[in-house]
Structure formats: structure tokens, C-alpha cells
Design brief:
Elements: E1 13-14, H1 20-23, H2 29-32, H3 44-48, H4 55-58, H5 70-87, H6 96-99, E2 110-111, H7 112-122, H8 137-141, H9 149-156, E3 162-165, H10 170-177, E4 183-189, E5 208-222, E6 225-231, E7 243-247, H11 248-252, E8 256-263, H12 289-300, H13 315-328, H14 338-349
Parallel strand pairs: 1-2
Antiparallel strand pairs: 3-8, 4-5, 4-8, 5-6, 6-7
Helix pairs in contact: 5-7
Length: about 350
């Protein structure tokens, strides 16, 4: 989101250009996450006393300096937090490394799925190597002097392995944040709604789309409403020195329109597979015990499914079935039909 002292705005989050069929490939958090009760701190002041609030003291404050790089800035902040969780120290990561590689360059702004996929495929570098903070749009597009093979190799070391889209309600966001991980999220707003410590909706037409970072474990009540804390990229002189409180109103009124959770898929702990015979075709949108059993087999028999079993068949299960079909020399459709089912039943019987 472009913002400066002049009342000038541009949309930093571009509308998803993909077809509905293409979006069916998306991994959904609801497919791999079992919801459980989440503790909400009774008020903001109580939350400030927790370790979670320390992120506001130690994270770098991003300033997109009038560029439209908010999506990449938020992704870089996610990478910074994820690496800090793993290594125990905060190393700022570069938004420029992501933004300059976007599919729509040199058009300003960025697609959320493009940014997430670039982070998965290419990772990102430390900001000290490829500075991406407080840079103009033109500077954010310049990467030629950093296009070095060794840099590309280093950047991939800091790449998550997958990303999942999260339902646009505050409870779903809270489930992810309660895992201790950050989220990339996107909001829409109108004139005079956003640039406040606690942004408020005044029924202005939502003209602008902006990407921000939700902080881990930031779920508390603010003036009687569930809320989360976000890191913005409008600089230290905006909001609460670079942070804002987003209340449930923003979710309920459709102003939060996307959330992305980045995950490192690690080899699962394998358990014995209980006897079962698959008798139904299963595909995108299937739900129930047969799907859950398929996920169990994909996880414990073939080590392909690496997250929680939910019984929901969407993009991630479909991708795992494709991998299974590849192993078996079957056309990779992602549909668990007669040929794939027969192969799995034979393996389970063996």
C-alpha cells in the first residue's frame, strides 16, 4: 500500500487473477487443522505482559516509503519471525528480493499467491545483503546487481516448504496464531479508515487493498471485542510505532479478505495402518471418514501427507494423491478413483 504525507493511495494487493479451477489447487488450512478452544487474553494490557508482546520490541519496523510493496514487506516480516523462532535471534529479511521477482513487474503491487509462491520457491535474503526497507518503487524493482548464484542458494535456505490459505474469520486466524506462528493477511479499507492505532470502519467504500503481518499469540479482547496485533509497513511514525490492533469488526464486515499460513512440512511420525478397504471414489470437496482414512494411509503408509488428519479433501490431499499416482505410474489427476484405489487396496492387503 502506497502512503505518504500527501493524501495519495494505491492498491498494493492485486486481485487474484486465477480461475476457480486453478484456485482448487490451493492448500487450505481447514483441510489440515483441527480447531480447538483458544485462550483469548481478557484485555490488551494483559496481553502486553506476555512474551508474545516482545515481538513489538525486537522486530524491525518496515517502511515501504511510498512504494506498493506491502505484500513483499509482509512476507519478509513473516520470514523474519519464522527464522527467529528457529534460530532464536532476529535477522531482518529482504522484501526487495521478493518484490523484484513478481510476475506483474513492472506494474506496481503484487498478487498474494505470487508472493507466497516466490517465498516458497526462492526464499529470501537478509535485508543487509539486499536492502528492501525504506526504498522507493524504482529501487524496489532493481535487483540486477544482486542476481548472484550464491545469493540464490543462500536465499533458498530460508524458504518455508508450503503455504495454506486460512478462512477469513478471526477464530480461524486465532487458531494459527496460537500455534506460535505469524500470518500474512490482507485487508480492504476506505478513506480515513486505516491510518489509526486501532483502524475503524466508517462505511467508506473500500478502495484500497493492503497486506500486513499478524503476530504470533496475539489474540486478546480490546474494548470488549476480540482482536489481534499486526505489524504494518508504513513506518515507525504510523500507528503504534509500526503496529496496529485489528478488531473482529474487520473480519465480520468482510474487510479481512485473505490469510496465509506458512508451514515447514517435516517427515511425519509414522504409525501402523489399520486394516481398511477403500470402496468409494474420492476427490476435491469430499469429506468424512473415508477421506480421513485416505489421509492416514497417505501419511503412515506412503509418508506423503505430513499434517493433521481432518477428513477434508482439498488442494493438499489432492497434491498428495498426485504424488502417490506418480509413484504408481498412474495419470496424476489428484482424483482417488478406481485405478488409484485398487493400487492402494493391494498395498494395504500385502
Amino acid at each position: 500500500m502506497l502512503w505518504n504525507t500527501k493524501p495519495q493511495f494505491k492498491t498494493g494487493v492485486l486481485e487474484d487473477p486465477r480461475t476457480e479451477e486453478e484456485r482448487k489447487q490451493d492448500y487450505l488450512a481447514s483441510e489440515v487443522m483441527i480447531k480447538s478452544p483458544i485462550v483469548m487474553y481478557k484485555n490488551y494490557n494483559d496481553w502486553l505482559q506476555t512474551n508474545a508482546a516482545n515481538w513489538m520490541k525486537i522486530l524491525p519496523i518496515h517502511d515501504q516509503n511510498g512504494s506498493s510493496s506491502c505484500v513483499s514487506q509482509a512476507c519478509a516480516m513473516v520470514a523474519t519471525i519464522l527464522n527467529a523462532l528457529e534460530e532464536g535471534t532476529v535477522i531482518p529479511f529482504s522484501a526487495r528480493w521478493i518484490y523484484a521477482k513478481r510476475m506483474n513487474r513492472p506494474i506496481e503491487g503484487m498478487f498474494l499467491n505470487d508472493a507466497a509462491q516466490l517465498l516458497i520457491d526462492n526464499g529470501t535474503l537478509m535485508d543487509i545483503l539486499v536492502p528492501g526497507n525504506n526504498k522507493t518503487e524504482q529501487q524496489m524493482n532493481e535487483l540486477s546487481e544482486y542476481n548472484i548464484d550464491s545469493f540464490k542458494t543462500i536465499a533458498k535456505l530460508y524458504a518455508p516448504s508450503a503455504y495454506f490459505w486460512v478462512d477469513n474469520d478471526i477464530d480461524s486466524f486465532a487458531q494459527i496464531l496460537a500455534k506460535g506462528t505469524p500470518m500474512l493477511m490482507a485487508v480492504r479499507f476506505g478513506n480515513n479508515e486505516w491510518n489509526k492505532d486501532i483502524p475503524t470502519i466508517n462505511d467508506s467504500e473500500p478502495k484500497y487493498a493492503h497486506a500486513i503481518t499478524a503476530l504470533p499469540h496475539s489474540y486478546f479482547s480490546y474494548n470488549g471485542k476480540p482482536a489481534i496485533m499486526i505489524a504494518d509497513s508504513w513506518g515507525i511514525n504510523n500507528g503504534m510505532k509500526g503496529y496496529r490492533i485489528i478488531t473482529k469488526d474487520w473480519f465480520d464486515q468482510g474487510r479481512v479478505f485473505a490469510g496465509i499460513w506458512f508451514v515447514d512440512l517435516k517427515n511425519p511420525t509414522v504409525s501402523p495402518v489399520t486394516a481398511f478397504k477403500f470402496e468409494k471414489d474420492l476427490g476435491y470437496g469430499s469429506i468424512g471418514e473415508d477421506v480421513r482414512k485416505l489421509q492416514e494411509v497417505l501419511k503412515n503408509k506412503y509418508q506423503l501427507f505430513k499434517l493433521e488428519l481432518t477428513g477434508n479433501y482439498y488442494g493438499y490431499t489432492m497434491a498428495c494423491v498426485k504424488e502417490l499416482q506418480k509413484l504408481k505410474g498412474i495419470e496424476q489427476t489428484g482424483y482417488f478413483g478406481p485405478l488409484t484405489r485398487a493400487g492402494v487396496n493391494k498395498d494395504l492387503k500385502a
